[in-house]
Write a structure and sequence with these properties.
This protein is elongated. The protein has helices at residues 2-49, 55-82, 90-107, 111-118, 120-123, 126-139, 145-152, 158-180. The mean pLDDT is 84. By secondary structure, it is mainly α.
Length: 186
């Protein structure tokens, strides 16, 4: 009789455990179904509100923007020739004036609008690089000269400068080794 009672008690405990596990399983399935439904609704919403890219239009805008920057650079070169700047100094002064123009337009909040419209066409020339240095400096000036401007000025352009210097150093080292062993002539 005791064995039967123990077996009945074990059966009751086993049934409770089984029922609890089934209940937990149904709950997990319910949560999984709700998450899947929510994810489907979210993906549908994202597809509705995400603008569809116009690659051809974006390329044309980038071409126009980059072309205008290049034309501006050429106009600067011609003006410098008219002002009798030495021929060897014209590219230097053109670069300086392009950078100055970019920094001024960034400070006046005009260059970001140009970039929004023209995309990569405004980012590829040296004016885009100047903008990437000036924009963080302007944005973080409220935090002070050291922790604001000093710490954030090269957040975008810093890696470009770093890798540019590193690559030029490696190329120079390779050139020096090849020249030292007579594999290339100067």
């Amino acid at each position: 009789m005791d064995e039967e009672k123990q077996q009945d008690n074990l059966d009751i405990v086993w049934n409770k455990d089984t029922m609890q596990k089934e209940k937990e399983q149904r709950f997990r399935e319910h949560i999984r179904d709700k998450e899947q439904e929510r994810n489907e609704q979210y993906n549908k919403y994202v597809n509705e509100v995400t603008p569809k890219p116009d690659s051809v239009g974006d390329c044309i805008k980038a071409f126009i923007t980059g072309g205008c920057i290049c034309v501006y650079g050429q106009v600067l070169m011609e003006l410098l020739k008219k002002f009798n700047v030495a021929e060897k100094n014209i590219p230097l002064w053109t670069t300086i004036l392009l950078i100055l123009t970019s920094v001024l337009l960034t400070g006046l909040n005009i260059y970001p609008r140009i970039t929004t419209w023209g995309g990569a066409g405004s980012l590829v020339p040296i004016t885009g690089f100047a903008n990437s240095v000036a924009a963080p400096a302007i944005e973080y000036k409220k935090e002070g000269q050291v922790f604001g401007v000093g710490a954030k000025i090269f957040t975008i352009a810093g890696p470009v400068i770093l890798y540019g210097i590193l690559c030029s150093w490696i190329c120079g080292l390779i050139y020096w080794v090849l020249h030292t062993f007579g594999l290339i002539q100067i």
